[in-house]
Amino acid sequence: MDLTALRTAHPDHWSKATAIRALTLDAVAAANSGHSGMPIGMADVATVLFEKHLKFDASAPNWPDRDRFILSAGHGSMLLYSLLHLTGYADMTLEQVKNFRQWGAITAGHPEYGHATGIETTTGPLGQGIANSVGFAMAEEIQRATYGKKAVDHYTYVIAGDGCLMEGVSQEAITLAGRHALSKLIVMWDNNNITIDGTVELSDRTDQVSRFKSAGWAVLEIDGHDPEAIDAALTQAKKGNKPTMIACKTHIALGHAAQDTSKGHGALTDPAQMQAAKEAYGWTTGPFEVPADVKSAWEAIGSRGAQERTAWEARFATLPNSKQDQFNRAYALDAPKKLSATIKAFKKQMSETAPKLATRASSEKVLEVLNPILPETVGGSADLTGSNNTKTADLGVFDLDNRAGRYVYWGIREHGMSAAMNGMALHGGVRPYGGTFMCFTDYARPSMRLAALMKIPTVFVMTHDSIGLGEDGPTHQPVEHLAISRATPNTYVFRPADTIETAEAWEIALTSKETPSVLSLTRQGLPTVRTEHKTKNLSAQGAYVLADAEGKRQVILVASGSEVEIALAARDILQAEGIGTRVVSMPCMELFAQQDEAYRKRVLPGGPVRVGVEAAVRQGWDQWLLGERGKSNKADFVGMDSFGASAPAGTLYEKFGITAQNVAEKAKALL
Amino acid sequence: MDLTALRTAHPDHWSKATAIRALTLDAVAAANSGHSGMPIGMADVATVLFEKHLKFDASAPNWPDRDRFILSAGHGSMLLYSLLHLTGYADMTLEQVKNFRQWGAITAGHPEYGHATGIETTTGPLGQGIANSVGFAMAEEIQRATYGKKAVDHYTYVIAGDGCLMEGVSQEAITLAGRHALSKLIVMWDNNNITIDGTVELSDRTDQVSRFKSAGWAVLEIDGHDPEAIDAALTQAKKGNKPTMIACKTHIALGHAAQDTSKGHGALTDPAQMQAAKEAYGWTTGPFEVPADVKSAWEAIGSRGAQERTAWEARFATLPNSKQDQFNRAYALDAPKKLSATIKAFKKQMSETAPKLATRASSEKVLEVLNPILPETVGGSADLTGSNNTKTADLGVFDLDNRAGRYVYWGIREHGMSAAMNGMALHGGVRPYGGTFMCFTDYARPSMRLAALMKIPTVFVMTHDSIGLGEDGPTHQPVEHLAISRATPNTYVFRPADTIETAEAWEIALTSKETPSVLSLTRQGLPTVRTEHKTKNLSAQGAYVLADAEGKRQVILVASGSEVEIALAARDILQAEGIGTRVVSMPCMELFAQQDEAYRKRVLPGGPVRVGVEAAVRQGWDQWLLGERGKSNKADFVGMDSFGASAPAGTLYEKFGITAQNVAEKAKALL
To answer: Where is thiamine diphosphate bound in this sequence (chains A, B) (predicted)?
Structure first.
């Protein structure tokens, strides 16, 4: 590239873009790690986007009607940090930029949601940002249809790299966006032809233009270093009636000795090469020094949206008060006042009628009473609507002719669904939940982990949660997936035993502000075990005494979900033999671990032998069986230590020994 | 559809295809569960494939040069079981078909590899089969280039449905196949426009033809009920120089009342409707009864390949003996004789020179000595070759002009890589290993689980295995992934402490026949801790005493991988204070659990306090700390109970308290 030509053609643009390039070089050099090439290559695109198109106000980073900017190629984090610093986001100080990738700084190696304002989502695991963006754009559509264009009317912009486009989840994302004609979603592809291992051709020769078109996108192709072309493409993209992909031909590490090489992807820290690059850019100030005129030009961009924001505030104030309240409440993740009373009334009714239901059906019953009072919920399923029981009659289906529809047919896209649900939660104003079979936690994992890391309350409805699934066999029978989600920090894993506990789990999940929930629900019918009504949410304690010992307490059976019924039957056997047996229902290990020791000790006192019962692997149970005053030679577990098999559910429980008889025998063997 | 027209146009074809349809209806009705519509819809395509194209011999199901047939749409398992039964596979008796989905039958709900001959891979989790097929086709290319066309020359055929094509992994698969011009891969898409939730349009409007073309495929479009068109398309597909997708327009549940509906996808068990469908087919025999002439016609198809097989055997016998031996040894998954001695010599040298190396670099050193003596290994990385250290100089790169190359640049496709590696292992003759960052276990999970379920020895090289990754931050730092893989049945998780243990882990992984391995390797440098040479593979015992207590044994520190060094330093602190401390290195929990109790007791005797040390979550550790003669109040753990952070590795270890000082203090607090 002829840098001089670029520079002289658009000197003002050039100096602004170069500020990004220089800060990137300096920060990566200071950290001695990071990715220099991508921010340098995409500086022109980002500059034009922020200068001329992105609707934002650096002084009001959380303004609900701002455009969203998602850096899907998260390794290029210095692009985002530079932009936030230059445009004047208060928290993104120069000090923070200088402390790139250091302990305590908000400038992590990859952008972390919650660390700094202006970071709309955590990216780095490739493909996540572009898949989140589908949820952002859907949430915008739903809210626009709900509150009107004067309250909600913004774009979602994404910068994605070759890595994002190679990850399979990107296909799920772009086909969803195409299906729903999410015309306010604009993806700028950093088409630099370089990955870590070499040129893209080494591993991929996909015609991305034709690929996106086949998914229903508009595609524009431009020189990503030509500010006029970038501006024109963005202008055109905003007018279309499809999502738009702008293929931006760029040079990674533009102007650096490593330009157009895979070395340029990484940390460019050689002082002489840095100096040479800066000279080529015409950048003469010292490290981390941005000339005052350039900084002011950027700050003007940062405050460009202030007027638009105040105009929006005035428009928003004209909405009916009830609408404003609902909008603000949903953004604040506050529960509606009616929620608690509704759950209590529902629980009372269920305790009285004591239905026998699969907990997936219990879940549907709960949603039938909650969805009408929580207009912010958006449900869905990855092509298992009838099996996951996630759809209630009031939601309406999200579609081209019903943008206010609150149910999404996600198709066979567990990963894309999960990432898009995260995007919805991050956008704000909606509470997403979505279902699949629990075994397909495997497909959704990358996004489930990110929900936990980002501290957002996405709800994953995982039905068919054990060998109780039956004939579909071991490919569809989770045995390790409870352990997988429990191993993940900041995740609530609920395994309710009946309709009452299911209602309690939903209450917690839908009032949670910082923790995602996994609802582990059965395919098979379960009796109501909580037949005595309690207004208190007992599941919020994680575990509680469901049935206490009669006579001397010799045995404690601890169980979850479908195995609580088995534990109760085992208790009957033991009590009939005069062995006092307590049954503890443990719907949520994480919440039980958060209780104070006095409560935990009341539930799990030392002394009696303990048997855990769960149709899953033992991993995760020893803390309750051997720990918490338990003893290695006084505890046992009834569950799975292998994959399942294909047969009717009842047969499987018998063959794998998850029976009341076996539980009782194991308990007796310990006495 | 006018069934009469179809039937009269090709009566012989029709009766053969109808045998599949009738068996499917009968088996699903007997099981009262399953998926009837897909086998009924694709019966014509499958019949033509088996009759006129698929190279196979039902009497020799494992003939190495057979064509492979992969039912990616695994829910249509009755299609495969019908074909295997009709063509005369000895194990697929009528009794087995009648016991569809029952305990002990080989006819599981979804096809399970290892249950019956002719099942080339386990499918059901959608997208896996088509992604496996890329590995099958690559393995064929590599073997053909290695042994010549007279020994290896076969096709891989796939039937995939809309679900397979919606899953993101299919995009990774088809772009890989296109990149490598895998012309002997032929995918037949069951284009029936139906998913469980409704018509495909409900969730997807992708132009699949254009999508496959953009990935470098040839595409043909046919009527999937016209046997001549099917035959012509397969004939053309076999001649091309690209992978071919044949879009087969079909009617799900053809001829049944549920034809062309999502109800038709499931179990069609209504007796009257079944009877009506059979009448429409002109099928007059009772349940599970195939007319003798139709069965003979199918059996003739099953034996059609016998002559070709004997011809192949004759050709194979002309290969040099050394080549035949290598071919047969690799197919049998037998290790070369030299392997054991090579590992021993390497370990001796390493114990003597005691290098300080990251275990990912140790792994490369091991591969440098093993790859040359194991011509069956095929390595690769998901675009992290230099970071995963998976490439050795001798391998050569698999590419269009070097089909014998044994290194694959998988691109940013962790899931597609893992599924394709499974396909390679299933094809036979090659031993695949591939690398990514351990955190991206999340992306690879669906295929990692299937390797364990299928009992195939795929090797997953997972580097950057803790917060020791440093500045890239929590999105890239695994904390729960050791627990995730350990929770999975039939999986070896190796976390070697130094170069010696890394060599031992590789020896086990590359001699394993039925268990996949996860190698958890560090980014950061580690000292050699096994400085005294032992010829025995100590890691095969799972855990062993690395340094015993001097004086009275009061403390046992149990650690893995990078934390063994920390445990040894803690031992120094404790011994200096006169506290006798044993350090147990535990590179593989699963293998330790398999040792007899006497050995386990020698390593972990009751009495001393125990502290576990691993830079990961505690889940999974309690069995060794509290169990195995341990005590709740005499055990502790030093590790992670949250996500990590972005900072240099040394800082993170300090800040998260994973230090020798902290380990020593925790041990003392328990005394």
So the answer is: 75, 124-126, 163, 192, 265, 440
Distance CA(B611)–CA(B627), nearest Å, equals 13
Domain ranges of chain A: 3-310, 338-526, 540-670
Average pLDDT, chain A: 98
Terminal-to-terminal C-alpha distance of chain B? 80
Q: Would you list the DSSP string of A460-500?
A: EEEES-SGGG-TT-TTS--SSHHHHHHHSSS-EEE--SSHH
| Residues A635-650: tens digit of each pLDDT | 999 999 999 999 999 9
Give the separation between CA B192 and CA B225, rounded to whole angstroms: 11
Token pair belonging to A439: 């075994």
Residue A389, Cβ density class (10 Å: 0-12 exposed, 13-18 middle, ≥19 buried): buried
A209 contact residues in B (CB cutoff 8 A): 214
Q: Quick check: A411 and B629 CB within 8 A?
A: no
Whether ipTM exceeds 0.95: yes
Q: What is the pLDDT of residues B642-666, one digit of tens each?
A: 999 999 999 999 999 999 999 999 9
Contacts of A647 in chain B (CB under 8 A): 101-104
* Among candidate residues B70, B74, B72, B82, the one with its CA nearest the CA of residue B44: B82
Q: What is the pLDDT of residues A499-527, one digit of tens each?
A: 999 999 999 999 999 999 999 999 999 99
Is A481 annotated as a binding-site member? no
Q: Compute and round to an integer the Cα radius of gyration of chain A.
A: 28
pLDDT tens-digit readout, A393-452: 999 999 999 999 999 999 999 999 999 999 999 999 999 999 999 999 999 999 999 999
Overall average pLDDT of the A249-265 stretch: 97
Per-residue model confidence as pLDDT tens digits over B89-124: 999 999 999 999 999 999 999 999 999 999 999 999
Please give the single-letter amino acid code of residue B206.
Answer: T
- C-alpha to C-alpha distances, B210 to A27, A209, B39, B214, B234, nearest whole angstrom: 43, 11, 26, 6, 20
Q: A with B: how many residue pairs have Cβ under 8 Å apart?
A: 354
B338-526 under CATH 3.40.50.970, yes or no: yes
Q: Which of residues 464-493 of A touch B (CB under 8 A)?
A: 470-476, 479-480, 483-484, 486-490
- The arithmetic mean of pLDDT across residues B490-510, rounded, is 98
> Does the pLDDT value for residue A1 go beyond 90?
no
Q: Is A414 a catalytic residue?
A: yes
CB contact under 8 A, B125 and A207: no
Rounded Cα gap, residues A35 and B379, in angstroms: 26
Chain B's closest residue to A455, CA to CA, is B643
pLDDT at B1 over 90: no
User: Which of 243-302 (A) contact B at CB < 8 A?
Assistant: none
The domain defined by A3-310 folds into: Rossmann fold (3.40.50)
Query: For chain A, how many helices (H) and strands (E)?
Result: 27, 20
Q: How many CA atoms lie within 13 A of B414 on its CB side?
A: 26
Which CATH number does B3-309 carry? 3.40.50.970
Whether A3-310 shares its CATH topology with A540-670 is answered: yes
Q: Which residue does chain A place closest to B640, by CA atoms? A: A489
Are B33 and A163 within 8 A, CB to CB? Answer: no
What is the CATH topology of the domain spanning A540-670?
Answer: Rossmann fold (3.40.50)
CA-to-CA distance for A607 and B278, rounded, in angstroms?
A: 65
Check pLDDT > 90 for residue A660: yes
The predicted-structure confidence for A571-580, as pLDDT tens digits, reads as follows: 999 999 999 9
CA distance A245 to A254: 22
Task: Test B620 with A617 for CB contact under 8 angstroms.
Answer: no
Question: Tokens 């029936």 sit at which residue?
Answer: B192
Find, in chain A, the residue whose alpha carbon is nearest to that of B177: A204
Given A141, A414, A501, A563, which residue is catalytic?
Answer: A414
